[in-house]
Amino acid sequence: MNSKADMPNKITADEIKVEVVDKDTGKTYIRKLPINYLETSNFLRLSAEDSQGKPSSLVFYTEQGVLGLRDMTGGGPDTHRCEDHRE
Fold it and tell me: Does 14 map to a domain?
């Protein structure tokens, strides 16, 4: 996949692999974690269970996702997206 056109619309996984480099030793550690992964053009969501077994998610929004949320909740500009829009 070399261009944006080659990127899938959605990426999902039931497990992720985390690679970290310890800042003191420089040693690399790799761990497989049972975390659900969902990535779209608007956000990246990591979902798993907390220590009590309840669902928990962490969401990172792209700039496009933040603008979309702002627009959907009334925080966007009061202008039409189409220049020739008529009311």
Answer: yes
- Structural domain span for residue 65: 4-72
In this structure, is residue 42 part of a structural domain? yes
Q: What pLDDT band is residue 11 in, cutting at 50, 70 and 90?
A: very high
The tokens describing 62, both together, are 């792209």
87 located within any domain: no
Element of type H or E holding 17: strand 16-21
| pLDDT for the residue numbered 41 | 87
How many structural domains comprise the chain?
1
Query: Cβ distance 32 to 17 under 8 Å?
Result: yes
Higher pLDDT, 3 or 6: 6
Model confidence at 63, pLDDT cuts 50, 70, 90, reads confident
Q: List Cα–Cα distances, 26 to 17, 21, 54, 75, 79, in angstroms.
A: 19, 6, 35, 45, 52
